[in-house]
Each structure stands twice: as structure tokens, then as C-alpha cells.
Amino acid sequence: SSGINAEYGGAGLVLEFLGTLFLVMTVLATINDKRGHAAGYLQPLSIGVAILVAHMFLVPLTGCGINPARSLATNIIEGAIGGDFYGYILGPLLGSVVGGLLYEFIFSAHYARAPANYDGIKNDGEATQMT
Asked: Alpha-carbon distance 26 to 104, whole Å?
């Protein structure tokens, strides 16, 4: 049976919220060009690690439905809408909105735009091939 572990009940909403918040904050911090790091091949790795960590903690507790579209589609097909389903929709939606607002107004506000050229390294935001 899929669903939020009965032992955690309403806490599943909070867990899904926190998992999505963690993922959104990671993605926004990774793609923020104002942080002064060049875009590169490690950005997808950091997002993948955030998803891995979220799954490691949430799969045993809630099944890790940090994607409300996936949760909605599978529950419609299974005919399992009801009960703790709200945790899979509201948790991620609220987590993504709060994460976006937190990053925009608290974390991102601390970064000035990175200079286009610093220490002889051109930073145009494009990944370069290492030779």
C-alpha cells in the first residue's frame, strides 16, 4: 500500500514540505549566476545529490512524493485520492513556494552580481571544456 506511513500521519505533510524545500533551495543556489561560480558539470551532480538525500530520508516515511505532478497522476490512475493524499500535493507546493521566496528575499539578496571578468578568468556563465 502506498501512502504516508501511518506512524507519521499528518507529519507527512511537513516531511514532504521539507524535502521539497531542500530540493528547491539546492536548485536555486546551484543555478544562481550571482554567486560568482562558473556554470559547469558539477551543477547537475549537486541537484542529483539533493534528490538522493531527500529520497534516503523520505522513502521509508512517506514514499518521497516531492513532485506533486507525479503524485497526482499516479493517485488518479490508482483511484487512491483521499486520506493522506493532501500531504503529497500541499506539502511540495508549499515547500516550493516558501523555498523560492526564502531564496529570493533572504539568500539571493546577499550576492552582488559576479564580475564578468575576474583574475583573468572570463565568467560568461557558460561551461568551458577543460584542456
From this structure: 13
Residue 51 C-alpha cell reads as 534528490
Q: What sign for the dihedral angle of Cα 79, 85, 88, 93?
A: positive
Rounded to 5°, angle at Cα 29 from 34 and 92: 140
**Which segment, 28-37, 94-103, 105-114, is predicted with the most confidence on average?**
94-103
Q: How far apart are CA 43 and CA 128, in angstroms?
A: 13
What phi, psi does 32 have (nearest 5°)? -75, 110
Q: How far apart are CA 88 and CA 67, in angstroms?
A: 8
CA–CA gap between residue 47 and residue 24 (Å, rounded): 9
Q: What is the pLDDT of residues 79-108, one digit of tens each?
A: 777 667 778 888 899 999 999 999 988 887
Per-residue pLDDT at 1:
41
Helix or strand holding residue 121 (H, E): strand 121-122
Quote the CA–CA distance of 21 and 93 in Å, as a whole number. 9
